């Protein structure tokens, strides 16, 4: 399979509202424990992670009836400025089924919006895919 | 049930259109529901109907229309009653 690209844009205010309305359930249903700890309740950081999850889902192109829990995609901080994706469970299974094993991610935020772009490519020997 | 679902969508889906104008089969994503809004809709539906969407239900088709949501809630309520 050729490389696949996904992009997503998230309104930070929408994340702020979800935190206000659903707090712990919102965090546990959408983010991994590591992500929740890394974000420390910051709507902006959470919005970046949600954008990365949705951009990944778009790159994976699941069918309408294929479940992809948000917690099966994790955005991890890597060094001072970089990030990396860790897939598990259903997201990892779909990636493997499509021959995708190499993921590049970039996130940004400005003016109340967070954006993420994910490029998914074929699995490479030694590449981190899970 | 569908009226209750419409109330949840009206309050949480942040649609740019009046929910009252949507048919039960209208695609909510095409009507403007974002992926993040679908999270709010899911959590609000859980509160309204006292159910929990399992991971296996977290797919596009579960939330793509009022009719689809109604079907999933009916299935979850039946499973919990069994």
If you had to describe this structure to a student in words, what would you say it looks like?
The complex is a heterodimer of chains A (130) and B (82). Helices cover 41% and strands 32% of the residues of chain A. Chain A is built from 4 helices and 5 strands; from the N terminus they run E-H-H-H-E-E-H-E-E. In chain A, the strands form 2 sheets. In chain A, strands 1-5-4 form a 3-stranded antiparallel sheet. Chain A has a two-stranded antiparallel ribbon with strand order 2-3. In chain A, helix 1 crosses helix 3 and helix 2 (33-39) packs antiparallel against helix 3. Chain B is mainly α and 82 residues long. Chain B is built from 4 helices and no strands. In chain B, helix 1 (2-12) packs across helix 2. The mean pLDDT of chain B is 93. The A-B interface holds A 8, 10-11, 14-15, 17-18, 21-22, 25-26, 29-30, 50, 54, 57, 62, 64-72, 89-90 and B 14, 34-37, 39-40, 42-44, 46, 55-61, 64.
Short description, anyone?
The complex is a heterodimer of chains A (130) and B (82). With 130 residues, chain A is an alpha+beta fold. Helix content of chain A is 41%, strand content 32%.
């Amino acid at each position: 399979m050729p490389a696949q690209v996904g992009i997503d844009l998230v309104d930070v205010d929408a994340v702020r509202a979800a935190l206000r309305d659903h707090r712990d359930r919102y965090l546990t249903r959408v983010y991994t424990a590591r992500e929740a700890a890394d974000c420390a309740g910051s709507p902006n950081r959470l919005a970046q992670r949600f954008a990365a999850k949705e951009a990944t889902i778009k790159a994976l192109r699941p069918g309408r009836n294929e479940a992809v829990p948000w917690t099966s995609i994790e955005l991890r901080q890597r060094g001072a400025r970089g990030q990396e994706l860790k897939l598990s469970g259903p997201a990892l299974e779909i990636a493997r089924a499509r021959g995708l094993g190499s993921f590049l991610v970039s996130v940004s935020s400005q003016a109340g919006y967070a954006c993420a772009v994910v490029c998914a490519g074929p699995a490479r020997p030694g590449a981190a895919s899970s | 049930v569908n009226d209750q679902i419409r109330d949840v969508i009206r309050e949480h889906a942040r649609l740019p259109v009046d929910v009252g104008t949507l048919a039960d089969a209208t695609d909510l994503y095409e009507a403007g529901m974002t992926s993040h809004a679908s999270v709010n809709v899911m959590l609000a539906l859980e509160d309204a109907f006292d159910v929990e969407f399992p991971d296996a239900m977290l797919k596009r088709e579960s939330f793509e229309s009022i009719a689809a949501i109604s079907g999933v809630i009916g299935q979850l309520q039946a499973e919990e009653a069994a």
